[in-house]
Amino acid sequence: MVQGELFPLRDLHEPLRGYRGTVASRVAGITYRQLDYWARKRIVVPSIAPSSGSGSRRLYAFRDVVILSVSKKLLDIGVNLQNVTNAVEYLMRQPSDRLEHMTILCDGQQVEECVEGEQMAQMLSRGEAVFGVSVGALWHRIDDALATEEHVEVTDAAVIDRSLPVNRLAADRLRETLDKRRVQREAMASAAAVGAVSPTLADVDPSAAHQPILSQGTLS
């Protein structure tokens, strides 16, 4: 469970720079295989140009890379994947300047934003080990690391609006996939119909229907 007030996702003045998956995974400290798995399972999906096929490339925004790094930290200290996913959904809705000053607490099960000292005391009172993850510290480390990395300048239209619920985004993608398949089926059906009505040799020359077909072996 992740607690805290939701804030608008998009930063109006955030530079729109996209980073390839190889850069994002290296800077976040995860393997490319992890990155690909998280993207396919929609745990951490790139905000810019999500991959839609073997020929396309994912582009990760700065905030995505920060959240990838936070996710790795949470997994490293034993937080289960479901709670990491919940934390990701919460962090994805925060503007970058808020992430810069954020600290989250976790006891291996729950993940909470630390907004006052009493929260730390409450978690400690449960008798469980409590870990703090400074999102702000990771924010600055990622910011420094990406400063010298290759990036792609993108337009505002290329950025996904993550204020939409995750299930809404999934539904939209499923609808797009089904539409593509429908178009492909219609194209195949049209091609088959054209082939079915194409004139045969017998249609053009009826006498040809009664002429024997010579094989190569009968030619002298």
From TrEMBL:
Residues 19-91 form the HTH merR-type domain. Coiled coil: none annotated. SMART domains: HTH_MERR. It comes from the Bacteria. One of its GO terms (molecular function) is DNA binding. It holds the Pfam family MerR_1. One of its GO terms (biological process) is regulation of DNA-templated transcription. SUPFAM superfamilies: Putative DNA-binding domain. InterPro entries: DNA-bd_dom_put_sf (IPR009061), MerR-type_HTH_dom (IPR000551). This is MerR family transcriptional regulator. It comes from Bifidobacterium pseudolongum.
